[in-house]
Each structure stands twice: as C-alpha cells, then as structure tokens.
C-alpha cells in the first residue's frame, strides 16, 4: 500500500514537471528552451521530419534557399535564449547588421537604396523623390516613440491579464494614445506627411511584414519601419535557417526531446483539464501542453469538444504568399540581398489580395538573394533567387491557374525592370503556395502571420497565450498574441514562460 502511494506521488511529481510542446516552429523551440531552463522535462512533438516550421530551407544541386523568413529584426530576442542558458551565442550564430535593408525599383527606372542608417536613408529619399530629408527623420523619430509607447503593452506582455493594465507603461500609452496613431490607417498617416508616391509606397510596404493591408491597418504599424531603420535589419551567417540549427543545438544540450514525424491528433481533455495528447490513436499522458500549432486549426482539428472562438474567425486572415525558388546561372550586380520591384498601383494590388482574394496582374515582386551575403548558397558565378509575391490566403481559388498567370507576370516584370530575359537563366525551380504552406505548417488557410492587423482592434483580438477554458493549455507562436514574425513568435514564448512562474 505504502509502495503504491509512493509510486502515485512520484508519478504525479513527474507529470507536474513534464511539459509537451506541439510543434517545433521557432516559437515551439523557444518555449521548450525556456521551460527546460526552469527545470521542466520538455518533449516536443513535431509532425514533420524536420524542425523550423515556416522557417525552413531547401538544399539542391549546390544551391541553398531559405524558404520562409528572410529578414530578421530584434536579433536580441534570439540571443536572449542563449544568454538564459549561460552560453555565448557567438559560438552558435553570427549576425551581421545590413548597411542597406532593401533596394527598391520603380517602373520609371528610379532605384532607391533603403540605407539602414537613418541620415543616409533620408538623404537618399530626398535625392530620389520630392520628399524632404527632415520629414523622413521626423517620421522615423515618431515611429520610435510609437514603439516605446506600445511595445511593453502590445508585444512583451500578455494583453489578457488584468494586472498588466495597471503597469506604468500601459498607463503612459493610454495617456499618449494620440501619438500611438491608432485612429488613422498607415496610408492616411504616410500620405499626410509625404507627397511622393514612391516614399509613401516604401513606408506602406511595412504593413506586409505582418500580412496586413496598409490601406486598412492602423498607422501604429509604422513601428515596423522604426525597427528596421533605427534598430537595424540583420542576416545570419549560413542563412536564416542557421537560427533554427543553433536552437536545435541548444535543445540538444538541454536534453530536450524532439519527436519528429509525430502528428498530434488531439489534445485530450477531461473536465476542462488537459490530460494528454493523442498520437497514432494512443494517448500520451501530460497535464501541461504548450501548443505552437496555428490556433484556429488547433481548435478545428485538435480540440473536438471546443468551438473556435468567434472573435478569431471574424477577423481577417493575414495574406499568404507565392514563392518561386530559382537557381539562376549568372550574377546580377544590380541586385542587392533584398530587392523590391514595386507595382504601379499599390492600392489595387491590396484590393485584389484582401477584397477580390485574387492576384493582381502587376504584383510587387520581392527578390531575396542570400548568396549575395552567404557565398556558399550558390555555385560560383550563380545566384539563389527567392522570388515572392503577396497573395490572398487559400479560399480554394484555382491556384494552378493563378500560379501559371503570376509566373508569367513576374517574369515580364523582371525582364522589363532588369532588361533581361530571365527565363533563360532559370536552371531549376521549386514553388511554395498558400496550399503547400498550409499542408507543411498547418497554418490556417496558408496565412503567413495568423490573423491580419487590418483593424484597429486586431491587437486585442488575438488569442491569449493561455486557454481560459482548458486548464494546462498554453499557446505560443505567430498566430496568437502578440502576433506573427520571428521576434513576436519569440516574444509569445517569453510570455508563456512567465506564466509558468505563476501557474506552477
Ligand atoms: C514565406 C514566408 C516569409 C516570411 N518572412 C518573414 C520575415 O522575413 N521575417 C519574419 O520575422 N517572419 C517572416 N515570416 C513569418 C515567420 O516565419 C513566422 O511568423 C514564424 O516562423 C512562425 O513561427 P511559429 O513558432 O508560429 O511556428 P510555425 O513556423 O508556424 O511552426 C509550427 C510548427 O508546428 C508543427 N505542427 C503543426 N501542427 C502539428 C501537429 N498537429 N502535430 C505536431 N506538429 C504540428 C508544424 O509542422 C510546424 O513545424 C515569413 C513566413 C513565411 C511562410
């Protein structure tokens, strides 16, 4: 009898210190590291045979492509994980701050270098457009203030814990709500200050960094240009995927178990408490689960007894993408690491994406060439092109037809902007589209960033980092608070880990 009680006690103790994480996206890896450092025994279940989720890579015939994220801001959110583990991140990763974050091309032949350094960038805008250097500097300064007023409220703390509303940063944000610029759209704010369509287009583009529409999203999102120009944009040696590799090394050193090819079929609950995970029709016992899978698909597929909250499905999803990974058999000195070939009608492009749910015939084309920085990403004299356009999320459009048409439109545009016949230089091709994004990562409808920020209330309508219905269930990653993109997915993991201090 005594032995049975001791065994029961030990089992309860073991269960209370063990945590399951669903998904090895960057958010899943980060929460696993944070909880392991707090003494929890962590097991990650990943449905794919690889980690990283949207942050992945393709290696093919001497070419390497990052398949998802290409630009990193706030690298300190990655570095912090190594610091917590008392490791020097430089033993795992090397970040370089970019001197120019993007090269912009327009159909009239204008080229604008978005230098990271604000003064130089403002001078470039003043030289190439009718806008003033002082206005650019004032704009970047005001965006810095917006960031200072909002980041503690909207990014680094839970919006769903009442006590956070009494913090001095929140009260300060509320007092200065006018400077947060939540009541105008990005486009309204940007076209009030700037006069030149080219400048407005550059700053409106930042809405796409979380899959939103600048003609609907609040001007608060202008904080993104602050991060890129005042704080800096970075590239990692070995490409973006090296971030995942370094986190996997850290997981390994912390003895975090990662079970690949493990598709979780259900989060099993009893009396509104987590009791385990169903996998291959068997139940593995856990009373604490952190879910890194897209939140809407989690409700739809893993929680059969719970309805997707209406506030989630009533929000507009973020945009998706169509990406061609082209092995190119020559060099293009005119192109930089990040390049944008702008549409002539930006408004129409967004109307197509968010209203028509189609792809505009003159899309803005983004070309990321990591081999400009990582020479080993392509054979000598060649380049690895990641060619992306923003698209609507998947609503069962005729994607094969859309891909075929868009490929032709993209090639026509590249040929006219770069004065080439690019088809001649493509030696191989891979494609990612909204359907395959959903299949590979379980992202609802293939949206890149969960729900969009197309309404001034969006920040308040993201799913919390915990379930208020199911005890023992937590959420991290780009589809929940504070939102999509690497730094925010990492911030969500930090918020969840702080909840463990209190809950356990
Ligand atoms: C094309 C593209 C470009 C992007 N560009 C940028 C950029 O430049 N900068 C930036 O910061 N961000 C960018 N992003 C967004 C960024 O990639 C994401 O916000 C971030 O990677 C999301 O991480 P996550 O933690 O939410 O997990 P995800 O990457 O969504 O991973 C979730 C993981 O869960 C696993 N999973 C799902 N369901 C199950 C299940 N039932 N059982 C087990 N495992 C499961 C999936 O296989 C996956 O590995 C881009 C995304 C894409 C796709």
Task: Kindly describe this structure.
The protein is of the alpha/beta class. The chain has two domains: 2-95 and 239-314 and 463-503, FAD/NAD(P)-binding domain (3-Layer(bba) Sandwich), CATH 3.50.50.60; 97-237 and 316-441, Polyamine Oxidase, Chain A, domain 2. It contains 17 helices and 19 strands. The protein has helices at residues 2-16, 26-37, 76-84, 118-128, 133-155, 168-175, 177-180, 186-193, 197-204, 223-231, 241-253, 295-302, 310-313, 346-356, 399-418, 434-441, 486-503, and strands at residues 18-22, 41-45, 57-60, 63-66, 95-97, 100-105, 111-115, 234-236, 257-259, 266-270, 273-279, 282-285, 289-291, 320-328, 338-341, 365-368, 383-391, 426-432, 473-475. A seven-stranded mixed β-sheet has the order 7-6-15-16-17-14-18. It has a five-stranded parallel β-sheet with strand order 9-2-1-13-19. Strand 6 and strand 7 (111-115) form a beta hairpin. Helix 2 packs parallel to helix 17 (486-503), helix 4 (118-128) crosses helix 5 and helix 5 packs across helix 10. The longest helix is centred in the N-terminal third of the chain and has 23 residues, at 133-155. The chain starts with a helix and ends with a helix. The model has no long low-confidence stretch (mean pLDDT 94). Flavin-adenine dinucleotide is lined by residues 22-28, 45-48, 53-55, 68-71, 263-264, 292-293, 321, 323, 437, 441-443, 448-449, 477-478, 484-486, 489.
């Amino acid at each position: 009898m005594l032995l049975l009680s001791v065994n029961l006690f030990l089992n309860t103790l073991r269960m209370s210190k063990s945590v399951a994480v669903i998904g090895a996206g960057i958010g899943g890896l980060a929460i696993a590291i944070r909880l392991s450092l707090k003494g929890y025994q962590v097991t990650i279940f990943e449905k794919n045979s690889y980690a990283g989720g949207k942050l992945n890579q393709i290696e093919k015939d001497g070419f390497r492509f990052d398949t998802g994220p290409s630009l990193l801001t706030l690298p300190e959110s990655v570095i912090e994980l190594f610091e917590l583990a008392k490791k020097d991140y430089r033993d795992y990763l090397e970040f370089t701050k970019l001197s120019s974050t993007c090269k912009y091309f327009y159909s009239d032949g204008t080229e604008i270098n978005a230098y990271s350094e604000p003064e130089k960038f403002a001078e470039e805008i003043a030289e190439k457009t009718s806008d003033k250097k002082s206005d650019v500097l004032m704009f970047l300064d005001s965006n810095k203030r917006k960031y200072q007023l909002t980041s503690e409220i909207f990014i680094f703390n839970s919006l769903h814990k009442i006590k956070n509303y009494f913090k001095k940063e929140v009260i300060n944000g509320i007092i200065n709500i006018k400077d947060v610029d939540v009541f105008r759209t990005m486009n309204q704010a940007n076209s009030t200050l700037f006069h030149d369509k080219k400048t407005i287009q550059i700053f409106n583009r930042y809405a796409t960094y979380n899959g939103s529409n600048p003609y609907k999203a609040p001007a608060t999102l202008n904080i993104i240009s602050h991060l890129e120009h005042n704080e800096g944009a970075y590239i990692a040696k070995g490409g973006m995927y090296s971030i995942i590799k370094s986190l996997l090394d850290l997981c390994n050193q912390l003895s975090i178990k990662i079970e690949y090819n493990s598709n979780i079929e259900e989060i099993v609950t009893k009396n509104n408490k987590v009791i385990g995970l169903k996998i291959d029709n068997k139940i593995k016992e856990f009373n604490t689960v952190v879910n890194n899978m897209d939140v809407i698909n989690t409700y739809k597929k893993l929680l059969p007894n719970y309805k997707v909250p209406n506030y989630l499905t009533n929000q507009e999803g973020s945009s998706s993408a169509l990406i061609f990974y082209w092995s190119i058999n020559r060099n293009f000195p005119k192109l930089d690491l990040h390049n944008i070939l702008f549409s002539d009608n930006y408004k129409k492009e967004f109307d197509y994406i968010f209203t028509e749910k189609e792809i505009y015939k003159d899309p803005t084309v983004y070309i990321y060439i990591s081999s400009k920085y990582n020479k080993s990403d392509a054979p000598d004299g060649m380049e690895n092109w990641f060619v992306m356009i923003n698209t609507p999320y998947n609503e069962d459009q005729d994607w094969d037809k859309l891909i075929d048409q868009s490929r032709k439109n993209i090639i026509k545009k590249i040929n006219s902007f770069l004065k080439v016949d690019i088809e001649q230089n493509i030696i191989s091709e891979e494609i990612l589209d909204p359907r395959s994004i959903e299949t590979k990562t379980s992202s609802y409808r293939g949206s890149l960033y969960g729900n969009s920020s197309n309404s001034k209330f969006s920040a308040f309508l993201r799913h919390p980092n915990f379930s208020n219905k199911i005890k023992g269930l937590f959420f991290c990653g780009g589809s929940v608070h504070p939102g999509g993109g690497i730094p925010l997915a990492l911030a969500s993991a930090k918020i969840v880990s702080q909840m463990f201090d209190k809950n356990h």
